[in-house]
Amino acid sequence: MVASGTPTPMKLTFDIPCETRTLPNGLAVVVAPQPGLPVVTVDVTYDVGSRVEPEGKTGFAHLFEHLMFEGSENVAKGEHFRLVAEAGGTMNGTTSEDRTNYYETLPAECLDLALFLEADRMRALVLTEEKLRNQREAVKEEKRLRVDNQPYAPSFETADALAYDAFAYRHPVIGSMDDLDRATLDDARGFYGRYYAPGNALLCLVGDLDPEDAFARALGAFGGVPPRTTPPPFRFEEPAPRGERRASVRDVHAALPALHVNVKGPARREGDALALLYAEKVLGGGESGTLWRRLVKDEEKALSLSIHFDERRGPSLFRVFGIARPGVPHAVLEAGIREELSRLAEDGPSSAEMERARRQLAADMVRSTQTTQAVAFLLSEYGLYDADPVLWREDFERILTMDAAAVREAARRVFTPDRISVVEVHPGEAP
Amino acid sequence: MTTAPPPPGPPRPFAPPPFVAARFGSGLAARAARWGKRPTVAVSVVFPGAGSASDPPGHEGLADLTADVFLGGTRRRSARQLAAAIDDLAAILEISAGSDSSVARLFVLESDLDAGLALLAEVLTEAAFPEDEFEKSRRRLVDTLTEQRSEPDFLVRERLLDRLYPGHPYGRLTPTERGLGASSRDDAARFAAERLSLGRATLLLSGSLDAEHLLRAAESVFGSLPVPETAPPPAVPDAPAIPGFTVHLVHRTGSVQTNLLFARPAIPRSHPRYLPAIAANQSLGGGASSRLFHVLREERSLTYGAYSSLSPRVRAGHFGASIDCRTDVTGDALAGLLQLIREFAAAGPTPDEHRRSQRYLSGNFVLARETPGAIVQDEVSRLLNGLPDDEFATWRERLAAVTVADAQGAARDFFDPSVGVLAAVGDAGRLRPVLEPFGEITLWDADGPRT
Questions:
Q1: Is A359 touching B (CB cutoff 8 A)?
Q2: C-alpha span between A392 and A383 (Å, rounded)
Q3: Which residues from chain B sit within 8 angstroms of residue A13, using beta carbons?
Q4: Which of A310, A393, B63, B81 is most buried when burial is the number of CB atoms within 10 A of its CB?
């Protein structure tokens, strides 16, 4: 017979020491030594995402991310991929609504290579019509691959457009085909000049490195990047919620009906944001989250159900997306989702639910910082958005000490009908 | 201003951690290795021969169904109570069936290792397989099949495997609705008793604690559990030969792209030429600096990405290459893909390509092993495929010894596209005339042969 134990109390059992310095050209540099495995991640995050795109220019921030891999003054087209691969490394770039990042993870002895590549494209990117044409086609193919040809994917664009009023978050990161076709070389040059200044970026180095040596190498590589005017902080106004919204879309690729229920919430780290991370776990954590358990397991109304607080620098969305079981109408899914959101707002989490969620949030932090790349992303986010890469620790402590009343009050304030938007996805072609 | 990429510094040594082996008093084999920066532990219990390739005839899907219903409750806890106990520890506990094995995996915080292992042991030795939970699992798997058939990537892989391994268990990507329907709760309980028995298992642990500590913790939970002797699972048959080059077109209404996947028989993981084949594949299509990506995306703008890979199993394996492209350039993209593979099979990598591939694979070997979970997964693979104890300790050394002639030989013997299966998913009306020059086409719908 095996006896199962009792969970131990939660506390912060690890740290991520790091130091920040700013180079004379304005580039912020964060260095976090993680001794042990001879691996290092170099991550450059620029303070520009799709939210800055005006109407008619959607998809440009992401298209520009592609152009950043197409060569700079001392790196020929195709050489970036080749050099990183030859070093045994991996690399990529990602664009979100709020920022764009470029990273390499590679053997620690190749740190200088990654610094060289990132500095060269920050200093002297080479843009041509041919590169723009080539990458425009790659991005359009990416949109077909990830959105247009996939079940349910286009409905996420509808859901965002319904939830937000301000254009910044209303439009998708991938953009529209027409806007991608309209992008010009002058647009690219202007975008580079405006947003890719060293003072508009943060460089994060994580791995098996000596901090002083790493700062010296960063200065050596990036010190020659001339300072440029840094754009003013991007601001946009999202109007206050004005009532529930609904939409219905057809999806030729979907086999089963699906439903989005989104609730507009606060920006990351503001107001009730941390409490909504608890709500995410109480409703959808593991296999005992109340909403997930009810609709997926107990009542078998949903084939799958994702519950996620999608934190953004502006208003965030508390997202629930479910694919219905065959024959289950949208109304049944929606009723279940609304009832569980309301229950959390009225009763708050039970003490067992609260402790479970607390533990899951703490475990997520442990598991999600096991690699140098994941640590670099975490420190870069706080470093760029909050000018303090170690603020994650403060948030973590706040999470560990939060009580059920705070979660209930947050749910009461946020899970209100005027903040909700609902999108029904119906399989098949439009009649 | 630096004008040339800086050379790398001297390579730093790296060796994956050695596993410490133990056999508990009960007879259960266990292996543990200290690894990782965070206070977390990864545990796997591997059951060779308990995968979908061992599904009894007529019960295709039984391995998946059994794995799923293991978490449907134990003699002590209902499904709901079990889920709560796992979530109370913030642990991840899952059982999944692959082709050649089933594996139970536990990820738990170091501080909760004892409690996590106790739950894992309870699930593996006291699963109750309640009838109602069995029916729920069955319904969910059947409905999942419906949903998966709307995904182009699923359709192209399903059709490819079906034709690459015709009539063979490796040819099934998922359970079948018929096999699920024919299986009962008792079938699942019997499959679990015979195939997922601790008598056929090895327990693997890795985390931030000493190997000896991990083994002590495991023995205190598993050391006194019964380890019944069970008959070995039936051997997976040899994969059948396939005839020449065949083309299979799956119609998907509304597709705005064509998903193309070519594959041909290659080698299992334990084959002595696996490393030369891996090196050759890297040069052809392993990444963004490989030939396929460079020519088809960067030079010709035909796709978002083009890659090749080896998919080794215990008893067989295949080499494959894929490209997704818009419908109107499908002919050019496919011709380009096959031509590049043909050229590569004939001549293999250049010495420069080979050197770069070796460097990439050697460096990436280190990057891919940052977590305890990755170290445990290596050991799972080693055990399943019958690889030597020092497989990963000597991997980089052996890779460095692969010559360009070795890689060229592997390309010639394992990549030649004159034999193989081409699967395409898209708008059949538009694609049929485009694909006809490549071979006689068999048409399919999402659910099977087109009538």
A1: yes
A2: 10
A3: 39, 110-111
A4: B63
How far is residue B384's CA from residue B204's CA, in Å, rounded to a whole number?
A: 13
**Which among B191, B263, B265 has a CA at the least distance from the CA of B230?**
B191
Instruction: Give the DSSP H/E element, type plus range, for residue A72.
Output: none
Strands A258-265 and A420-427: antiparallel
Evaluate whether B334 touches B438 at the Cβ level (below 8 Å).
Answer: yes
Are A216 and A310 part of one and the same domain?
A: no
Distance CA B449, CA B451 (A): 6
Let me know whether A256 and A195 are in one domain.
no
Out of B9, B90, B362, the one facing A360 most closely (by C-beta) is B90
Which residues does chain B have within 8 Å of residue A298's beta carbon, measured at their own beta carbons? Answer: 80
Contact A78 B152 (CB under 8 A): no
DSSP alpha helices (H): ranges in B309-350?
330-347
**Any domain includes B442:** yes
A253–B contact, CB cutoff 8 A: yes
DSSP state of B240: P
The residue whose two tokens read 């629930």 is A320
Closest CA to B276 of B415, B419, B392, B388: B415
CATH number of the domain at A283, please. Answer: 3.30.830.10
What pLDDT score does B447 carry?
A: 83
> What pLDDT, on the 0 to 100 scale, is given for residue B450?
64
Q: CA of A344 to nearest chain B CA: how many angstroms apart? A: 18
Tell me the C-alpha distance between B219 and B392, whole Å: 26
> Among partner residues A5, A87, A360, which is closest to B359 by beta-carbon distance?
A87
Q: Is the dihedral of CA A404, A405, A408, A413 positive or negative?
A: negative
Q: Which two tokens stand for residue A210?
A: 């000596």
Chain A contact set for B289 (CB, 8 A): 78, 81-82, 84-86
Which pLDDT belongs to residue B412?
Answer: 98
Q: A249 forms bridges with which residues in the sheet? A: A425
Confirm whether B273 is domain-assigned.
Answer: yes
Give the pLDDT confidence score for residue A4 in this predicted structure.
44
Q: What is the mean pLDDT of each run of 10 residues along chain A (431 residues)?
A: 48 89 98 95 98 98 98 95 93 98 97 98 97 95 95 98 98 98 98 98 98 98 97 95 96 97 97 98 97 98 98 97 98 98 98 96 94 98 98 94 96 97 93 69
- In sequence order, which residues have a C-beta less than 8 Å from that of residue A429 and are 6 or more positions away? A250, A252, B253, B254
Measured in degrees and rounded to the nearest 5, phi and psi for residue B131 equal -60, -45
Per-residue burial over B7-29, b if 16 or more Cβ lie within 10 Å, else e, is: ebeebeebebbebbebebeeebe
Which of B55, B423, B21 minimizes the C-alpha distance to B247? Answer: B423
Q: At what angle do helices B79-88 and B113-126 cross, to 10 degrees?
A: 160
How many domains, in total, are found in chain A?
Answer: 2
- Count the Cβ atoms, other than its own, within 10 Å of residue A202: 27
- Domain that includes residue B401, residue range: 245-449
Structure tokens at B297: 């995306």
The DSSP 8-state label assigned to residue B333 in this structure reads H
Residues 6+ apart with CB under 8 A from B370: A37, A39, A370, A371, A372, B36
Of B90, B140, B151, which has the smallest distance from its Cβ to A363's Cβ? B90
Is the same domain home to B250 and B187? no
Coil, strand or helix: which one is B245?
A: strand
B320 with B334: CB under 8 angstroms?
A: no
Cα separation of A225 and A118, whole Å? 11
**Which residues of chain B have a pLDDT value below 70?**
1-2, 449-451
Radius of gyration of chain B (CA): 24
Report how many domains make up chain B. Answer: 2
Show Cβ contacts of residue A401 under 8 Å, excluding neighbours closer than 6 positions: none
SS (H, E, C) B184-229: CHHHHHHHHHHHCCHHHCEEEEEECCCHHHHHHHHHHHHCCCCCCC
